[in-house]
Specification:
The chain is mainly α. It has 7 helices and no strands. It has a domain of about 150 residues.
C-alpha cells in the first residue's frame, strides 16, 4: 500500500507573494487612513488618500515582485545553461561531481556512483539542477505569478481598512480602523502560517505586532502635524 504524503513546498512561491501583498495592503492602507484621520482629515480626505494608496501600493508590489523574482529566474536560467554546457563538454567530471555530492550526504562511494550514474542516465541536467544547484521545479521562480498574486492580495488587504473607514461613525475612524486592521492581520497571519504548516499563533502574533507598531507611529505623526484647531 502506498503511503501518501502532502507537502507544502509547492506553495512557497505564490504563498509568500500573496501573504506579503495582503499584509502590506492592510498595514500600509490602515496606517495611511489612521494618519490622515489623526491629522484631522474628513471622510473624503481619508478615502481619497486610502484609494490612492491602494492603487499605488498594488502597482508597486506587482512591479517589485516581478523585478525581484525575474532576477531570481534569470540567475536560475544562467546557472542551468552553464550546467548544460559543462555536461556537454565534460560529462565525466560532472558525473564525478555528483558522486562527491552523494558521498558527502552519507552514501558509500560505490552506492554514490551507482546513484549518480542512474540519475545521469535518466536526466543529467535535472539531477545537477536539484542536487548541485538546489533548483527544484516546485520552487522555481515564476515572476508573473508572483506579481499578480502580490498585487491582487494587496488590493484585497487594502480594501478592508478602506471599508472600515467608510463605515466608521464620525470621529471613530482611528479606533475602528486600528482595531479591525489588527484583527484582519491576526487572521491573515494565522491562516498563512497554517497553510505553510507553521503554528498559527506565531504567525498571527508577528504580523499583528508590526501592524500595531506601524499604525501607532503614523497616528502619532498625524496628531503631531495635524490640522485640527
Amino acid at each position: 500500500m502506498l503511503h501518501g504524503e502532502r507537502h507544502r513546498t509547492d506553495r512557497i512561491g505564490w504563498l509568500r507573494a500573496a501573504v506579503l501583498g495582503a499584509n502590506d495592503g492592510i498595514v500600509s492602507t490602515a496606517s495611511l487612513v489612521v494618519g490622515v484621520a489623526a491629522a484631522g482629515g474628513g471622510v473624503r480626505e481619508v478615502m481619497v488618500a486610502g484609494a490612492a494608496g491602494l492603487v499605488a501600493g498594488a502597482m508597486s508590489m506587482a512591479a517589485g515582485e516581478y523585478v525581484s523574482v525575474s532576477s531570481q529566474s534569470d540567475t536560475e536560467r544562467a546557472d542551468l545553461e552553464r550546467e548544460r554546457h559543462e555536461l556537454a563538454t565534460d560529462a565525466a567530471a560532472e558525473l564525478q561531481e555528483l558522486v562527491g555530492i552523494y558521498i558527502k550526504r552519507g552514501l558509500d562511494p560505490a552506492l554514490a556512483r551507482q546513484v549518480a550514474e542512474q540519475l545521469t542516465a535518466k536526466d543529467a541536467l535535472a539531477a545537477h539542477a536539484r542536487d548541485e544547484l538546489g533548483i527544484h521545479a516546485a520552487l522555481a521562480a515564476r515572476p508573473v505569478q508572483a506579481a499578480l498574486a502580490s498585487a491582487a492580495m494587496f488590493s484585497v488587504g487594502a480594501l478592508l481598512p478602506l471599508a472600515m473607514a467608510w463605515l466608521a461613525p464620525s470621529g471613530r475612524v482611528v479606533p475602528m480602523v486600528s482595531v479591525t486592521a489588527l484583527v484582519f492581520l491576526a487572521v491573515l497571519g494565522g491562516l498563512a502560517a497554517g497553510a505553510g504548516g507553521a503554528p498559527a499563533f506565531r504567525g498571527a502574533a508577528r504580523v499583528t505586532l508590526w501592524g500595531a507598531l506601524a499604525m501607532g507611529l503614523t497616528a502619532a505623526v498625524g496628531s503631531l502635524f495635524g490640522v485640527q484647531a
